[in-house]
Write a structure and sequence with these properties.
206 residues, Glutathione S-transferase Yfyf (Class Pi), Chain A, domain 2, 4-stranded mixed β-sheet, Glutaredoxin
């Protein structure tokens, strides 16, 4: 697909996930740092993402927001990178990609906000309770190197970011399984490149 590829991000945001995914694809892209103070609410950026959140990517005249969607889009758009699932990997790929984007994200956010789900309301909440989500997340990386099995895919960029970020800031309790998985995905050269670029961008971030 033809078109200029641009990442809109802030180095202290979920934009690090999109940056990592872009580095995994090997595609050329431009970066625009969007400041928290006024950049994310500017008319120019709101025209790209009305939520006023980063990251977002533009590819030609197309816009993709939401980190899980960005990961899936880039995997499909750059198949030569080998990050999209094969036929036998699709079930696990979509299952754990959307589990991380849904139940994990919601459970971590609610816990960070001090929101406890009453026992009689757990059936209303997609993740049930935090402990159930945590145990299920551990099961996703137990007995396998990556969420689809032996091969790294775009789902690992997103799931790995959620786990690594969560353990770093204490919002997801560490476990031997989560720690070992995090070490595997963070050892990737694309992750190291992405981290170095975001670290260097801190100076221009507002």
């Amino acid at each position: 697909m033809a078109g200029k590829l641009t990442l809109y991000t802030h180095p202290m945001s979920r934009g690090r996930i999109a940056r990592w995914m872009l580095e995994e694809t090997g595609a050329e892209y431009d970066t625009r740092i969007i400041s928290y103070d006024d950049g994310m609410r500017s008319p120019e950026y709101l025209a790209i993402n009305p939520m006023g959140k980063v990251p977002a990517i533009t590819h030609g005249d197309r816009v993709v927001t939401e980190c899980a969607a960005i990961c899936a889009y880039l995997a499909d758009t750059f198949p030569e990178a080998g990050l999209a699932p094969g036929p036998d990997e699709r079930a696990d790929y979509y299952r754990w990609l959307f589990f991380a984007a849904g139940p994990v994200e919601a459970a971590v956010s609610n816990r960070s906000l001090g929101i406890d789900i009453p026992e009689d309301k757990k059936r209303m909440i997609g993740y049930g309770d935090f402990d159930l989500m945590h145990a299920t997340l551990i099961s996703a990386v137990t007995g396998r190197d990556f969420v689809c099995g032996d091969r790294f895919t775009a789902a690992d960029v997103y799931v790995g970011s959620q786990i690594g970020w969560g353990m770093q800031f204490g919002s997801i309790p560490a476990s031997p399984e989560l720690s070992a998985y995090s070490e595997r995905v963070y050892a990737r050269e694309a992750f190291k490149r992405a981290s170095a670029k975001d670290d260097s961008a801190m100076a221009e971030a507002g």
